């Protein structure tokens, strides 16, 4: 597996795809979760993008995901009430621990990926 950075177009595609998948999965979970915790799946999207593409695309996912969730789950254009403290803590924790802020986490993730790849 080459260890080179993905191109800007690949980073953008990963970011947009991660937001789309997070929205779709959250929509499927709406039967059980209702309207509570609309950013539940967006935390995972941010973690994935910061790990694979870096902090800048992950910041775009965090902001874009917040806007998309506000539009889809919180009442459309009439609601952009801001982040709750739980959402802020979740984004900060995942952004720092999973992506690059925790060097100890990287070998574990790479070992897990190599096991999946065979």
What is the CA–CA distance across the termini?
12 Å
Q: Which ranges are low-confidence, i.e. pLDDT below 50, for 5 or more consecutive residues?
A: none
Helix proportion of residues, in percent? over 70%
How would you name the oligomeric state of the polypeptide chains in this document?
single chain
Topology (elements, then pairings):
Layout: H1 8-33, H2 42-52, H3 55-72, H4 85-99, H5 105-117
Helix pairs in contact: 1-2, 1-3, 2-3, 2-4
Explain this structure.
The mean pLDDT is 76. It is built from 5 helices and no strands. The protein has one domain (8-117). Helices cover 70% and strands 0% of the residues. α2 (42-52) runs parallel beside α4. The chain is mainly α and 118 residues long.
Put the structure in a nutshell.
The protein is mainly alpha-helical and 118 residues long. It has one domain. Helices cover 70% and strands 0% of the residues.
Key features?
118 residues, mainly alpha, 0% strand
């Amino acid at each position: 597996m080459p260890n080179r950075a993905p191109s800007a177009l690949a980073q953008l595609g990963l970011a947009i795809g991660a937001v789309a998948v997070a929205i779709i999965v959250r929509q499927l979970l709406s039967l059980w979760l209702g309207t509570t915790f609309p950013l539940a799946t967006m935390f995972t999207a941010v973690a994935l993008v910061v790990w694979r593409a870096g902090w800048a695309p992950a910041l775009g996912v965090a902001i874009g995901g917040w806007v998309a969730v506000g539009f889809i789950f919180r009442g459309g254009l009439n609601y952009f009430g801001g982040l709750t403290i739980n959402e802020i803590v979740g984004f900060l924790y995942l952004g720092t621990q999973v992506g690059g802020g925790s060097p100890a986490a990287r070998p574990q993730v790479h070992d897990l990926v190599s096991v999946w790849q065979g």
